[in-house]
Write a structure and sequence with these properties.
Keywords: Coiled coil. This is Endonuclease/exonuclease/phosphatase domain-containing protein. By secondary structure, the protein is an alpha+beta fold. The protein folds into six domains: 66 residues, no CATH class; 78 residues, RRM (RNA recognition motif) domain (Alpha-Beta Plaits, 2-Layer Sandwich); 100 residues; 124 residues; 151 residues, Endonuclease/exonuclease/phosphatase (Deoxyribonuclease I, Chain A); 33 residues, no CATH class. Helix content is 38%, strand content 14%. It contains 19 helices and 25 strands. It has a five-stranded antiparallel β-sheet, covered by helices on one side. Strands 11-12-8-13 form a four-stranded antiparallel β-sheet. A hairpin with an 8-residue loop joins strand 6 and strand 7. It is elongated and about 170 Å long.
Length: 763
């Protein structure tokens, strides 16, 4: 190189003096690369404001023209760190010899067979580095990503030494450019920012911008002068660049000299890539396993919820079909009354025709008696027809509360207060459905009746001819183990009145006695009829009584404490199956009450295991049972909870009462709201229910004119105004239009106009 430079200067003495330096003075291996530096005097250097890169550009062009095999470029990094002639062979570890000697020998032999001149070869960290003497040979190897080398089973991957070649003086680099955006858009944004911030006499000092090959996360640019380059590298410009791009590109670094980027090894990957990939693969595998488990759990929960919804829909449809059948029976009964009324009117007409021309006084008196009897019969039939029409309309459209005649006012029965009155803890919410119960309404015992205890004998049968349906009032509450004596005395008195059946249930907290496993609820039952009244007095430790006003009435009462998770594989898994069998085998009406640990709607807050709701809804469907809480559509877990939850101000509605729906006439339920209704030593509130059943109506009853239709469901809830939802605002306009039509139909607008004219002077 020195010889070539001396010949060039002889032919072109105007070129500046230069000095030739080796690639690395510390290396012992030979190299075909060297550096050329300007050899200017100190006086010349001090007089120049800008570095004389133009002199080096002249030398670059002259040397490239002197020998076409030479590659003349700007120095990419500090002396001895140039990677232009490097080739790296990955994954060629060979433990047969120390230092991976066998792998280096194979690669060196392969390069020699190709005719490539190798200046050095050495192993380093699981790879082999090959230094070639000619840049064209480096490009030939790097153009193919893999090479088949004899002695290796798999193709060997090859990579260049990672550095960005400098194409223009004082080039700068921006690294960390995000690849998720369009590269052209980011390049345009950076170019626009540089042009707007760095100007000289109104002209931009940005000379060019590019994206180097194989480096999509790097943008390289250069300025027109060294002064403009220094301005870009100033601290103020660096801070302004980071502040401007920190939201769009938070990991992008401020511009640096490309020479410094190559020298500092900014592209060097720290750590062990194989271990990093292995750890990443394990993390992804765990994440996929967790995701698969969540998907499986979600599918199971959706299937369970779907099945529960289907059971609930089936129960609702069955009830609607039953109501339709009842409506058709009521319509048939009304048609029969219409036919009877037509026959009476026909007999009256025939009687009038027969009386024409009769002068016998006795015959006239007999005819008048017959006429009066026919008129009385006609009035009775017309009244029954009117009632039948109202009943039919109430079933198919209007509120069922119109079907229930108001109960007569009755006297109250004083009760003996317990020696210990529980006090309600603070923070109990008012129930959504207010209680309308009193001592009189719970017993329905007419004033002046004498109450006496009268055991029922096995020979007594139920009175089928009774017109008034028996009314049952159930008052239920949870107890703890301290109430064992009270429950035992209560059930001992009650056991002589009705034989009970026990279904074993194991408690989660403790194994209670069978009597407590059955009786987690206390009942105050009153079977009302107008025949005769008997009373079972309370024991000395109980504040509840049993009133039986019809000794011939049959009604099965079942007290139950359901398991928390009936889906477990234990002795509680068959609880609802046994309960279903018990209720379906009952030949009379029945009522089930207790802590059932299940809900039927999401807004009641789920309690119990995954299977609790599904099995409970299936029980209602198979037994044709009616859950009393379903009559209160406005119930909430905030105001009507029966079991307090860990979340403040809320609870679960799990204390429930179910009764057979075939003979159900009326029912209501609510939580207790008085200061002494709280149950001590528990987290439960009491519930109060009113249930009215009627005996089954037969064809003989219809033929005999019996109007006590047991299918007329008469819920005791008062009519309420339900405000439309936000998505149902069109109902407001429908309501206004309906009011306007009724005002016009009743001519109220004319009456209002006449009233205004009579009270005000209209001019």
């Amino acid at each position: 190189m020195q010889t070539a430079i001396a010949k060039i200067r002889e032919s072109n003495p105007s070129l500046a003096p230069v000095t030739v330096k080796p690639l690395s003075a510390a290396r012992k291996d030979w190299s075909t690369s060297c550096y050329i530096h300007l050899n200017l005097s100190n006086t010349t250097r001090a007089s120049e404001k800008e570095p004389r890169v133009d002199l080096l550009v002249l030398w670059m062009a002259t040397l490239a023209a002197h020998n076409s095999n030479w590659e003349v470029t700007w120095t990419p990094c500090k002396a001895g760190s140039d990677k232009r002639m490097f080739i790296r062979f990955l994954d060629v570890t060979d433990d047969s010899k120390t230092g991976n000697v066998a792998a280096t020998d194979k690669i060196l032999k392969w390069a020699n067979t190709k005719g490539w001149t190798v200046s050095n070869v050495y192993p380093y960290k699981g790879a082999v580095f090959l230094t070639l003497a000619h840049p064209k040979h480096v490009d030939e190897i790097a153009d193919n990503n893999t090479h088949i080398i004899k002695g290796f089973e798999q193709p060997i991957r090859v990579f260049r030494g990672r550095q960005i070649e400098i194409q223009n003086p004082f080039e700068l680099a921006i690294i960390g450019v995000p690849t998720e955006y369009d590269t052209y858009t980011i390049e345009e944004l950076i170019s626009k920012w540089l042009r707007s911030h760095f100007r000289n006499e109104g002209e931009s000092t940005l000379a060019g911008i590019r994206i180097p090959p194989r480096e999509p996360e790097t943008i390289v640019f250069h300025m027109t002068t060294w002064a403009a380059t220094s301005e870009v590298l100033s601290p103020n410009a660096q801070t302004a660049f980071v502040e401007f791009f920190k939201k769009l590109c938070p990991n992008m670094l401020a511009p640096r000299l490309l020479f410094d980027v190559n020298t500092s090894g900014a592209f060097k990957t720290t750590g062990n890539l194989r271990n990093d990939f292995h750890k990443g693969a394990e993390s992804l595998q765990k994440a996929f396993q967790d995701l698969s488990r969540r998907v499986t759990d979600n599918e199971k929960a959706n299937q369970t919820q779907h099945l529960a919804t289907q059971l609930q829909i089936s129960s609702t449809l069955q009830e609607r079909v039953l109501n339709t059948q009842h409506a058709l029976i009521a319509q048939n009964y009304g048609n029969m009354l219409e036919q009877n009324l037509a026959e009476v009117k026909s007999q009256q007409m025939n009687l009038r025709i027969t009386l024409i021309g009769i002068t016998d006084v006795r015959q006239l008196e007999d005819a008048n008696k017959i006429k009066q009897a026919l008129e009385v019969n006609q009035k009775e039939l017309e009244e029954k027809i009117k009632t039948s029409r109202q009943d039919f309309t109430s079933i198919v459209s209007s509120s069922a509360t119109n079907l229930i005649q108001p109960a007569p006012k009755i006297a109250t029965i004083p009760t003996t207060a317990s020696s210990i009155v529980p006090s309600a803890p603070p923070g109990l919410p008012n129930p959504t459905i207010p209680l309308r119960r009193t001592s009189a309404s719970l017993t329905n015992i007419p004033e002046g009746w004498e109450l006496r205890k009268k055991p029922r004998t096995s020979g007594q049968q139920r009175d089928r001819g009774s017109e008034n349906p028996p009314l049952s009032n159930v008052e239920a509450m949870n107890i703890d183990t301290h109430g064992e004596v009270r429950v035992f005395n209560f059930l001992k008195d009650y056991s002589g009145y009705r034989r009970s059946r026990k279904i074993p249930c194991r408690s989660r907290s403790s194994i209670m006695k069978p009597i407590l496993l059955l009786a987690t609820l206390l009942f105050a039952i009153s079977l009302v009829n107008a025949v005769q009244a008997t009373m079972v007095p309370p024991s000395s430790t109980s504040t509840f009584s049993i009133y039986a006003l019809n000794a011939n009435g049959f009604h099965r009462l079942i007290a139950a404490y359901a398991p928390w998770n009936p889906g477990d594989e234990g002795d509680t898994s068959d609880f609802w199956k046994d309960m279903t069998s018990l209720c379906r085998s009952t030949t009379t009406s029945w009522t089930l009450a207790g802590d059932l640990n299940a809900t039927i709607s999401l807004f009641e807050r789920r309690s119990g295991g995954v299977e609790a709701r599904r099995q409970y809804l299936q029980f209602l469907d198979l037994t044709n049972g009616h859950d009393l809480w379903s009559d209160n559509p406005d119930r909430t877990r905030v105001n009507d909870w029966t079991c307090r939850s860990s979340q403040p101000g809320q609870g679960n509605i799990i204390d429930r009462i179910v009764t057979s729906s075939s003979t159900l006439t009326d029912a209501e339920i609510s939580v207790t709201d008085r200061h002494n209704d709280w149950i001590p030593n528990t987290d439960h509130r009491g519930i109060v229910a009113r249930i009215m059943h009627s005996r089954p109506l037969t064809n003989d009853d219809i033929q005999n004119g019996e109007t006590d239709l047991n299918f007329q469901r008469r819920p005791s809830s008062s009519p309420r105004v339900k405000m439309p939802l936000k998505t149902e605002k069109e109902k407001y306009q429908t309501f206004r239009d309906g009011v306007d039509e009724k005002i016009k139909a009743m001519s109220l607008h004319r009456q209002m106009y006449e009233t205004c004219r009579s009270r005000f002077v209209i001019s």
